[in-house]
Specification:
- It comes from Saccharopolyspora erythraea (strain ATCC 11635 / DSM 40517 / JCM 4748 / NBRC 13426 / NCIMB 8594 / NRRL 2338).
- The protein contains nine helices and three strands, in the order βββααααααααα.
- By secondary structure, the protein is mostly helical.
- The longest helix has 17 residues, at 114-130.
Amino acid sequence: MPADPTPASDEHAADSTGAVICADGLARPPWAASDPLLRDYYDTEWGMPVRGEQALYERISLEAFQAGLSWATILRKRPAFRKAFDDFDPEAVAAYTEADVERLLADPGIVRNRLKVRATVTNARATLALRAEGGLDALVWSFRPETTPAPRTTAEVPTRSPESAALAKALRRKGFAFVGPTTMFALMEAIGMVDTHLVGSHRRGTSGIWT
């Protein structure tokens, strides 16, 4: 679940599962109930399977930039991030120089954090190195758990798991940065490796991975 739950407005009512019945009659978690951008992201992207090196590299990068910030902030800046980082093409980013780092730190459209910018370049190079071992996609998805949570309220949604801790450790061992267990659990939620849609949400089970 994104780290910044968005409170529902007074026109919404929570049902017994903890989901929020929105004006369109659909049940969503509180963080996706009010902000149109977050609602669209929840309805169309969050929790759906994501495969492929470039797509996963982008999501790992954005999750790293989100650390300590709201997901809404990152989502609003995502078009600027994509423009600044060559659509998160790992080959392009891996070739960045110090001049590129300074260019990025001067870009008001993104999060200008030197450690996170450098980590994104480092992670691009680590992504390329993984190709000799099966690739980023194979590594990430090898940590899919055997079961998924079934939270009824947001309080029941985990923030980390044994699998996210193991994934974080494996990625760090391969040279990745800003990939802690909590960040990796958020990644696993976002790409459908676990289904933490609230029981009662209209999106529960829509990934096709968990039934």
